[in-house]
Amino acid sequence: MRSVKATVEFSAFLAIGLIFSAHLSAQENSPFSRYGLGDLYPSQNIATRGMGGVSAAYSNEQALNTANPASYSALKYVRYANGTNGGLITYDLGFSIDNRTLRSVSLGQTYKSTNLLPSYIQVGIPLSSKADARQRNAGLVFGLKPATRIHYNIQDTVTESTYLKQTLYEGNGGLNQVFVGLAKRFNNLSIGVNAGYEFGRKDVNTRVILTDTGSFFNYYPSNSAQNTSFWGLYVMPGISYNVKLSESKKEGNAYSEAYFLKFGAAATLAHTLKSSTDTLRETFSYNSSGGTVPIDTVHSVSHVNGNIEIPMTYNAGFMLSKKYVIGQNAVATKWAIGADYSAGKWSGFSYYGAKDRVIDNWMLRVGGEFVPSLTSPRLFSRSTYRLGFYTGKDYINADGNTYNLRALTFGFGFFVKKFTSYDNNSTFINTAFEIGKRGSNVNNVTENFFKFSLGLSLADLWFIKRKYD
Fold first, then answer.
1. CB 208 within 8 A of CB 165
2. In terms of Cα–Cα distance, which of 415, 423, 422 is closest to 458?
3. Please, which pLDDT band fits residue 333 given cuts at 50, 70 and 90?
4. Each residue of 387-428: pLDDT tens digit?
5. Is 159 exposed, middle or buried (CB count within 10 Å of its CB: 0-12, 13-18, 19+)?
6. Which range (3-17, 82-96, 152-166, 210-224) has the least confidence?
7. What angle do CA 446, 452, 454 make, to 5 degrees?
8. Which of 437, 445, 286 lies closest to 357 in space, CA to CA?
9. What digits encode the pLDDT tens for the residues 125-146?
10. What are the φ/ψ torsions at residue 336 (nearest 5 degrees)?
């Protein structure tokens, strides 16, 4: 009966995630996504986004950290006083809403868009059937998430004395990842790896409408379309090392207070995506409902195969934390603070052998989290509060002047339901807010953005073993 209930819960979670992803992925509008494979989507979970995206040395079974697969070794196998024990399975789902304001210096215009986008759907499973932290040392995570997003709609109008030329640039698509990750801990050292399949599309249309204002000539609009699909495998190894700096126990307390320093690093290795492109150039007209009707095909080529070279990217950092310890188990975090540095060799990116307007990027992230009172019955006192920032250089270099990227972040997380000896379910909600800017005074187009992200983590016991008299 228990396995049936768990299977139903997981199936419902997966169905919600897939429906969610299918309906929310096509709302974004960003002209920056015209280059490379589009806007890079955050790899961090919602919890770490609230503290600047610091994730290289972060681990939390209630918010799966796929940015460093070594963190999976911390997934819990729990034991209760009534003799019940089992693997604490975590279902993790996230999405984001962002509001963007684009400003063009040359045109003196402002454009706004609001976008609703999926972040990830993933499941974490502990593989060690031990409740004690000294013996708990392996975990498995699998999931689906976007890696990049392409969606833009840009219109350029040129007015002359005898004609009006309107050019519409449209693009849609992006890169997605389905993956499985494993991690193993050896004393203080944890090693993990994500391996997965990447797939996606890049559909680009350039439509030109020419109107002769000086005579009675009419010109048919033209369209140039390129539809590319790509796919391939990727590997992401990760490592972390955790050091207990000190531990002390106060008189009358059942727990000790300990300070930990953790280092972590992860990298997505350089890899090649296979691709296939269909190209079409045609003239067309519009029907009464606004749809396009082809008139004459000028050029058509299908299934042109090629390669897309994706460079290596890496992330490394540290985290200092204060935790409450019972026996050998760190049962709760009072506070944590850390920093990450990430970079990518995007100058090595190529699309069918051609370079694009992308450059090497880097990012510095700093942030932390704090719980006012771990034992308080009040929701806001026992919630987790996070604050951070990030600053760096974007990989997209649209105008040749490079784009600085920076943001202030904050967020909080709280339990909707806590574990008890009679109910093994819990729900944890994480939120993150980002206020930032892409570009500066040297760029023709700049972007101010506000992002809100919501993560929902559901935990339940599987593989239950019960103690009978």
1. yes
2. 415
3. confident
4. 999 999 999 998 888 999 999 999 999 887 654 444 556 788
5. exposed
6. 3-17
7. 150
8. 445
9. 988 765 454 555 889 999 999 9
10. -155, 145
The most confident of the ranges 225-229, 252-256, 281-285 is 225-229
Class of the domain covering 2-465? mainly beta
Of 238, 239, 234, 207, residue with least CA distance to 220: 207
Q: Say which residues have a Cβ less than 8 Å from residue 149's Cβ, sequence separation at least 6.
A: 25, 28, 30, 33, 38, 39, 41, 117, 174
State the average pLDDT for the chain: 85
Does residue 165 contact residue 209 with C-beta atoms inside 8 Å? yes
Amino acid at 150: I
How far apart CA 119 and CA 145 sit, in angstroms, is 6
**Cα end-to-end distance, the chain, whole Å:** 21
Higher per-residue pLDDT: 332 or 252: 332
Q: Are 254 and 270 in contact (CB under 8 A)?
A: no
Please calculate the CA angle 150-142-387 and round it to the nearest 5 degrees.
65
Burial class (CB in 10 A: 0-12, 13-18, 19+), 91: buried
Give the residue extent of every domain in the chain: 2-465
Return the C-alpha torsion angle 422, 8, 143, 45, nearest 10: -40
pLDDT the model gives residue 4:
44
Report the percentage of the chain scoring pLDDT > 90: 53
